[in-house]
Amino acid sequence: MSPPQKPLQHNQPGVPQLSARAQDLHTQMVTAHTPGYLYSQGELQELAGAKDVRALLRWVQELTNAHLVKLAQQGSAVYFGAVTLTDARVMRTLTPDEALVYDQIVEAGRNGIWTKTLHARTNLHHNVVARCLRQLEALRHIKPVKAVTHPTRKIYMVAGLEPSLELSGGPWFTDAEIDTEFIESLTNVICRFVDARSYPPPLDGPSSNANCSSSSGGGGTSELRVYPATYGDFPTVPAIAEFVKTSGVANVDLTLSDIRTLCEVCVYDNRLEKVDNGGLGYKATLKTHLHNIGAEVEPTAADLVDFEYW
Description:
Arc Repressor Mutant, subunit A; 3-stranded antiparallel sheet; elongated; 3 domains; alpha+beta
């Protein structure tokens, strides 16, 4: 059984006083559905347990006067949306034009809203919208954001929200520009991590290892050792993701999908290759391994055959 909902503190200084039934209706509207949901009159009547439509409309009017309910028309039908206490508190301090603009920005959520769309939806003059935006930004109610798909557009969203993935472009973008240094740093770290688990460490002396095979062509090169074909403990995406997370090399949270994308970039660059080890794993290519061990001489054809065996 779910714990009882904590009552919302509706009646506060400077706020229109609400009846108990109006307060209860608003609490039900906020908690019954996700933000932005629009209720029909029938749904509200059922939610409030009101048999008398006139009583329901009185409570709705109370909430409308307190900026806690907004009306929306779809065709010939009127719908009702709940406004949070925080947004209602902001709305009560704004002019009618500012409230109209702010309401549209709130409705846009984490996707933000383009200024051109604001003009169309509010039907306000460009200068009026611009003045409202300046005031709302000065009061820190809203903030400008950049969209990676439309970097020249002026887009605004509520100050306390984080831009959606579609808007920000995800962790690979900073201020709507792709962060190549960040990507390069992460791919380098991932390649070193995978390489350390792709090849056995070099032998200190002429000893043998039952779990490894080796090839020593190329004259003065150090022995290149590889795991046998039965070896299957190459790093997987979850293992790589856990390493990236615990190492602290990224200052943002990266999903498994993000890590897989980075690994695929390394595959495309011929730094890693996919292996089937019961799940999708990765191993470092010979090119990557030679670079990391500082080999100065390319392996012979015989060496390459041994590695091609994988």
